Amino acid sequence: MWNLPNLLTLLRILLIPVFVAVFYVDAPWAAYAAAAVFGAAALTDWLDGYLARRWSQTSPLGAFLDPVADKLMVAVALVVAVQADPRVLMALPVMVIIGREIAVSAVREWMAEIGDRAAVAVSKLGKIKTTVQMISIAILILRESIFGPWLYGLGVALLYVAAILTLWSMVLYLRAAWPSLSGAKQGE
């Protein structure tokens, strides 16, 4: 239970209040520090899974905590990004991303309950979506950086790409789960 992959996942959860506190510090370095904390959390998201598989240290605790830690960090980061830039332009993709996470989590939980969790396993598209989402959030956290407003515009554009990938992956999850959801699965 107390292996390095699980400790990295717990660290990601513990970084959430640190990220929020640093994000709201009124100092010129705060945006960079908040982006660094978020980046460290995003890195642990990749690293804990890689190490768990590589070292054969997968565990029920890790399988439970990893997606929870990921969704918590992403949701919190998206909420503070919208709070910092409360325009519909920002709120719309954030609502799509958070809404999709709730819907897909519910589908996965239900599929696991009926013993068909493998039908909605994480796909390559989901990993691409997560990567684009993490990059966009890190850029948005920087807000008005030394790189100028074009970088923030890139972050917003990538957030829309992430929202589109989010919807696409949700459709794929729902299609995979549809036979079980509709009761049309063979043998029923």
From TrEMBL:
PROSITE patterns: CDP_ALCOHOL_P_TRANSF (PS00379). The chain crosses the membrane at residues 7-25, 31-51, 152-174. It comes from the Bacteria. Pathway: Phospholipid metabolism; phosphatidylglycerol biosynthesis; phosphatidylglycerol from CDP-diacylglycerol: step 1/2. It comes from Marichromatium gracile (Chromatium gracile). Its main location: membrane. It catalyses: a CDP-1,2-diacyl-sn-glycerol + sn-glycerol 3-phosphate = a 1,2-diacyl-sn-glycero-3-phospho-(1'-sn-glycero-3'-phosphate) + CMP + H(+). Belongs to the CDP-alcohol phosphatidyltransferase class-I family. Its EC number is 2.7.8.5. This is CDP-diacylglycerol--glycerol-3-phosphate 3-phosphatidyltransferase. Keywords: Lipid biosynthesis, Lipid metabolism, Membrane, Phospholipid biosynthesis, Phospholipid metabolism, Transferase, Transmembrane, Transmembrane helix. The keyword Transmembrane applies. The keyword Transmembrane applies. Pfam families: CDP-OH_P_transf (PF01066). It is found in: Membrane. It is a multi-pass membrane protein.
